[in-house]
Every structure is written in C-alpha cells, then in structure tokens.
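Q: Got one fold?
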Amino acid sequence: MTPTATYRLQLQPDFTFRAAEKVVPYLAALGVSHLHLSPVLEAVPGSTHGYDVVDHSRVRDELGGEDGLRQLARRAREYGLGLVLDIVPNHMAAAPSHNKALWEVLREGADSPYAGWFDIDRSTGDGKMLLPVLPGPLGGELAAMRVEDGVLHHGEQRFPLAPGTEELALPELLNAQHYRLCWWRLARTELNYRRFFTISELIGLRVEDPEVFEATHAKILELVRDGVVEGLRIDHPDGLADPEQYLRRLGEATGGACWTVVEKILTGDEVLPATWPVAGTTGYDALRKIDGLFTDPVGAAALEHRYREVAAPAPDRGGHWEPTVRRAAYKVVVHELAAETEVLVRAAERICAADPALRDHAPWALRTAIRELLVRVPVYRPYVTATGPGGPLTEASAATIPAQAVREAKAAFVVEQEAAAVDVVRDLALGRLGTGPDHVTFCARFAQTASALRAKSVEDTAFYRFVPLISANEVGGDPGTPAVSPAEFHAYCGRLARDWPATGTVLTTHDTKRSADVRAGIAVLSQCPKWWDDLLEQVSGVPAPDPQVAWQAWQTAVGFTPAGDSVDVDASLAGAPDGSRMGPALLKSVRESGLRTSWTEGDPGYEQAVTDFVDAGPAGAARRTVAHFTRALSPYVRAGALGAALVQLTMPGVPDLYQGTEREYFALVDPDNRARFRPGPPDEKTVVTTAALKVRRERPDAFGESGTYTPLEASGPAAAHCLAFSRSGEVVTAVTRLPLRLAETGGWTGTELVLPAGRWVDLLSPEREFEGGPDHPVPLAELLAERPVALLAVAAS
C-alpha cells in the first residue's frame, strides 16, 4: 500500500528494533502510516548507519536479528503501521574479515564463485585486486604482519590466503596472493575496483548480474512476500550499471506490491525518467523547491555580492556558482577520481585498438576527452542502457551530454583531428559505437563515474566553497539560484500531482547538511542582508583564520542558536554544548572544500585555528550577541519553519519525517546525523505536524494518487507573501512567505484570499471557521492572525 506519511528511524546498536517497538504508540498517535527504517541487513560491527552491508542473507544481529524485525512489524501492525526499508544495492563494505563474498574473491581470485559480484578491472598490471588498507607503504608494514591459523594478520585486519601459500616466507607469500596489499594513499590513482564515490571501504556490487541480484535481494524479497515490509527506499541508484533495468527486475520480484522510491538527485529542471517503475524520488527535489519559497531572491543576490567582496576565496572572488562547480569538478576528476578515470581510459584504448577507424586516437587524447566531458555532464548521469545492443539514442540521454559540452571539451585540444577523440568518448558514453564487452563496460562506468564526480564536486566540494547563503547548499539544491517563486512551486506541484503523486518529499534526512529548522534560521538572512552586515561588524573582534570560515561559522551560529538573551543557548539534541557540534561541522566544511586543508592532506595548524575560532566566537564569547540577533529574527524564522513544514506535509507526494523533526530540531550533519532517536516534548511545530498528518489519514483520497492540486492566488498589495493551495477541494494550506519583508511593507492590510466554496474549519484552531466562495474573500490578516500558517478543511455538510 502507498503510505500516507513515513517516519525515518536511524537504527544502530544503541537504538535497536526493541527500542523502535517502544516508540510505535507515539508514532501512531503522531499520525504517520509507516516506519521508515535505515538499513537492517548485517553490517560492519558497530556501524551507526548500516550502509556498510557485509551479508545480505541476514538481518543484523546487533539490531535484534530477523526475529526482532518481525516482532517490530507485528507491533507496528497492532497500531495500523507498516514498515519501509532502506536498501543498499550499489555497494557493500570492503571489509574482508566480515564480508564473506569478498573474502572468497581474495582467497580464490577470478575463479571464485563470487568473482562476478564486484567490478574488478584485472586488465592492468598483474591483474590482482588492489587492497589499499595499510597505514603506510608496504615495506614499513611488513614487520606488523603475521600468519596465524592460515590467515594473514595486520593489526586488527585479517586477510585470506590462497590455498597452499600458508607456509611461504612473507615476501613470497604476499606475491602469491590474488590481491595486493598496499598503502591507503595508492587508492587515488591505482585502485582497480569500483567503489562508492571515493570511499575505498565500500566496494561496488554488480547487481546487473541476475545471480548477484538474487543473492543480494533474497532476504529483502522474503520480507516483502511475508508482509513484513511494504515499501522500499533505494539508496543511490545512480551508482548502478543500469538503474532502470535494476528497478524493473526489483518490481517484478516484488510483484509490484511495494511502494518504492529512489534516492535520485535531480538537477535544475531535470525530471525523473518516466520509464522508471517507481513511485518517485526520496524527495530532495521537493526540499529544494520548498526551501526556495522562503528565500528572498533580492536579498540572496545582495548577500552573494557582499560575500564575493569580503569572504569568497580568491578564485571565486569575481565568479559565480557554476565556475566554482567547474573548478571543483576538475579537482575531483584529476585527483580523487583518477583511478576511475583510468579504468575508462583503458577501456577506450582497447576499443580503439580493435577498430581500425579509431586506432589513431592516442591514450592522452582519450584521457583528456574523458575528463573534459565528465566535468561538463550537467546532471548526475546519462540515462542510457549499458546492456542493450547499442540502442537508439534517447532525447533524455542526449540532453545529459549537450552539444555545448562537446564544443567546450574540444576546445581543450589544439589540433582538430585530435579533438575528434571527444566525439568518440561521447558516442561510447551514450552507447552509440558497439555492443562488445568493453563498449558495455565503458558506457556503464562513464555514467557511474559521472555520478560520483557530480556528488563529490558539487555536494562535497563546491557546497563548501561557495557559501553566500548556506541554507541553499543542500543535497539537490542550487546555491546559484536559491529562490523559488510561487508560480514555479505551483507548476512543480502540478507536475507531481499529475506524474508522480506518490513520490517522496523531505525536509530533513540523515544526509542533510543542516536540519530544516537550522536552514530556516539561515534563510531569513536573505530578507535582511543589512542586518547580516551589522552582525558581522559586531562580531568582527573575534579573529578568524580567514573570512570564508568566518562567514560560514557565523551563518551556522545564526541557524543553530535558539532565540533568547541567555548565554546558555545549548541545543537540545544530545544535551551537549553547541560548540562540540558546531566545531566538527566547521572542520568538515574546511576539509571538504579542500582550499586550506583536506581529509587526506590535513593542515593541523589551520584546523586548530578553526576550532579555536569556533570556541572563542560562535560557540563562546559571542553567543550572547548571536542570541540577541536570533531573538530579533525569531518571528520570521518561526514563519519560515512552520510554513516549510506545513507545505511539505500537504503538497503532492508522501511526506517523510526524520526522527525528531515533528518538533523544533537543530542538527548539523556531523555529528548529529548519527544521533539516536529521543522523543521530546511537543511544541508549536508538533501541533502543525499532528494536524496535517491527521487530515492526511482521515482524507486519503484528497491527498492520494487521484487527488488534485489547485493553486489559490491571494489578491492585494501583499499577495506575493502568501502561498496557498487546495487539495482536492477538501483541504487548504496557506502560509506566509518572506514575513520580514511583509512587516516592512505594512503587513497584510488590504490582502485577501478566496477559499473554495463551502464552510471551512481551521484545523489548528478548530473554533475558527471561514466561509468560502468568491463572495466571501477572507482577509489574510484574519486568516493568519494566530499563526503564520493555516490549515483548513471543508466542514462536513
């Protein structure tokens, strides 16, 4: 069945199935229809997230095992709730001592029955699988290695030995294995297995192979058939060789009885491929549209201008968002993804060597063409079928490598004939040139690499380099165009209601860099850029390592500091002082940006300066200053936070609530994205959330796949500050946009909203009723007198 609303729980050894059972009554009373569980299959011991699966045949023992999961499902059913599972088809943990399939591949090499599970390129060097797991160069680690009970040990790591090699001397023993142990730094250039993004500890799975699919999905499909699971969230489908083929196979295996959404990041006006047999996305596209509604385009432009004047790193001082993305993409493709690029180069070389018409394309030209095209793919990946017989080029796939990208890539060459390598690479990437194994491999790996490049260069680099308004720097977001007009939002919702009515929508997830309430506190700065300048002046006495860090830190402090005039402005999530949480978040920012330090080439002195600055300023002496500032902004932040929550809960799609976000929730990606769930006291946001979930549950037809979405336009001088819509003529949502600007221009005076005909009850204050119809326009000053949002339902006749 299609959920009416889901609630995400982050399972971990400290929050098990038994713990989840205890909150079932609370979640049922809240009004959701399904629990959305993080991955439940066996993972690396102690994992706090579960995306590092090691055994697909078992439900994780640390969470309570399969009996615990089935008991949770029974408990949920007692309260009318179902389960949605997050599954991870793209990768598993590259931890030999825990991953049986990988252990066997390392022990037996290409002859292992599990050899087809992983994308291992054995066409280079000695054909061995590289294992970049040693803390230093091999020569310096030999003394730490020993063989015991037929197993090679290095510290706590264990590795299998090829049969008959146990008694060899260590150097000879190492050379006799089907794998090559090496320094972790070699992964950047030498790695020969597909991984998740740039994380060598997560090895890619070949679920395009029917046998691998069956082996890795049998337990999940059993749980679906047994009615334990009613929905699936598919993690990172862009990493798969052929996402559509996978989704079709999954749909056939579940009998189409499972509500299924994909973690697909859409860029700009990109839409989900209509041929994918899913209900929609997990909702990052909705997040961007909702956040954009509460961002002022004029103020955002002013912030960007000021940022470039005083805080932007030198390369970005005169530039904008897209040049920042391009520079980041070059950095990632040349450095972090050098090994992935070389896999493509080798495949292209083999193809060209076998075809007389292509033989004269030199390796350097193919490498250059691959890099130049990869950095210009404007979305996460081209959608072409890597396993088909070349197939006709679809309009969608052509759009992902546009003609402009081809022309720009050719500009990197001096000789026109050498630039023809770009055409070859484009045609290989789009499946135009042949059907041989190398052609299929190139097509799939180009798309997979494009996805990794986009994620690393945009989400994990450019988002931390271009920071005029960091509330816009969210997965699926567009920091270059952060604002969304009501007309654009209405058009988007109209498309969802027509094409993807059961898609997912989100505001906060385990991956969002800042929770929705933190983003709401930052987004309000777009309505008052002059106030922001004044705040920076007030805190300028706190020396920062550089202006870029200061800009990010003070915006983080604004979003992360509850309003008040007390020095004690600790956030409530874990009872820890916010310095202990802001500090790691800022360190993550400077490492991800790679401008002054990084995860692999750290600058301890600079990082200590960042930590000292946070402790001395945003989390220290200046907290009172920031608290006074946020208190002045409080009513406007409240309007944005409540407005975003209500819009998400009532727009087309299935809303997903991240644990704890039914109330005010302040969180940053590190370290808060692994926090265990703790129900807290209700607040105003809880009232709005509960009312919206209740009306969704009571009127499923109004919000379901046959429901309609109708924009409602206010009239009067402040009409642009109201966003309103009707769901199937039965429920009306009205929220306040840009309330600070509204207050500066006189409020709601003279502005009205015509409700659909009928008598309407305010679900947030049931004693209030309104008459609808064109003869009874409702003054917005009256409709929104008690709250900056209104949720109305037509009264029963």
